[in-house]
Amino acid sequence: MSLHLLSAEEILTYWPQISPHIDVALEHSVGEITTFQTFKHAMNGQMHVWIYVDQNKITSAFATRFLIFDNCKSLQIMTCGGAVADWELTQSVHSVFEQFAKKNKCQNIQIWGRKGWVKRMENITSESGTKYKPLYTVISMEIENDFN
User: Fold this and answer.
1) Lowest mean pLDDT among 44-48, 84-88, 91-95, 132-136
2) Could you report the per-residue pLDDT of 99-118, keeping only the tens digit for each?
3) pLDDT (tens digit, 9 = 90+) per residue, 137-147?
4) What is the pTM of this model?
5) What is the DSSP string of 60-128?
6) For the sheet containing 48-54, what is the strand order?
7) What is each CA distance from 72 to 11, 67, 128, 142, in whole angstroms?
8) Dist. CA 82–CA 63, nearest whole Å
């Protein structure tokens, strides 16, 4: 059982197995990005695609990207789709993301997702012992315009 960051060539090879997991994750979004757009951004280096492999089978796929602010660089976990047989493994999966974030000089890891992620991540700690803290909730309201 392990988490792997894919190269562009590997994304092309495994996309038929990856895309259903991304589709499932994006069902819970508000349409900011599509699975195909995720693929395009990953192929041009703007996003990263990760797979979780259990017994030689891709069981989950993740998409991440860097968010660069004036005073901070973050690794954002954008999607997580699929199933990890034992969610206690989340700590080891998170450690891979943490090492990747450190290697890329990120100040933090962010997850913009459903409220359920707060509960899911409450037992996860960084190598230095810190935990995720809910800072705010992102919500959106669609506005109808008369631009016809």
Assistant:
1) 84-88
2) 999 999 999 898 877 777 77
3) 655 555 465 64
4) 0.83
5) EEEEEEEEE-SS-EEEEEEEEEE--S-GGGHHHHHHHHHHHHHHTT-SEEEE---THHHHHTTT-B-TT
6) 2-5, 48-54, 57-68, 73-82, 108-111
7) 28, 8, 19, 29
8) 12
